Hints:
rod-shaped, single chain, mainly alpha, 1 helix
Amino acid sequence: xxxxxxxxxxxxxxxxxxxxxxxxxxxxxxxxxxxxxxxxxxxxxxxx
Length: 48
């Protein structure tokens, strides 16, 4: 504290790590969803 450093609690550290993990998972799932839509769109349009 003398140098102005802030120590994080264990719960805060877990939230930071978990947040990064879920952000990455969200990006991967988002990209996969876009690819799936592009892949299946012609087949769905052909059925209409």
